[in-house]
């Protein structure tokens, strides 16, 4: 009831305000009209108590809002939900496949890396042996050349005297 009175008071104020002002070419948006329905008192309720409930709706609201086909809306939402569920499942499967592919590629890289390390180890062992044996040969050659050089120095020193 109060909403109807408030709406009527607003309209009266709007009419008074437009009468005192000159008419211009402005467009006003129509205000929705509130319609209320008061439910009767239940037995045992006091007459002065606020025991009524009012249902308010606007006359300018779309009539399709009042006559919605809830079953069709439910079916539409159900189909959309099912479509999204399928899409999530497909994305999960694709993600799992990619993880499997990455794991397989990682395993292959590890085996290749291990094989390369074995080959490198095989190649480095002989070269280190060669380095060791070559180093000992060079030391022996160097010692022999030192002795030979010493002998030549002695021969030359005896010739000059």
UniProtKB/TrEMBL annotation:
Its Gene Ontology cellular component terms are: cytoplasm
Q: Which residues form the cGMP-dependent protein kinase interacting domain?
A: 133-160
> Does the record's keyword annotation contain Metal-binding?
no
One of its Pfam families is PRKG1_interact
Question: What's in the keyword line of the UniProt record?
Answer: Coiled coil, Developmental protein, Repeat
The family database entries (InterPro entries) matched by this protein are listed as:
PP1_Regulatory_Subunit, PRKG1_interact
User: Is Protease a UniProt keyword of this protein?
Assistant: no
List the coiled-coil residues.
67-155
> Which residues, if any, are the signal sequence?
none
GO MF entries: enzyme inhibitor activity; phosphatase regulator activity; protein kinase binding
Protein name (record): PRKG1_interact domain-containing protein
Q: Which organism is it from?
A: Nippostrongylus brasiliensis (Rat hookworm)
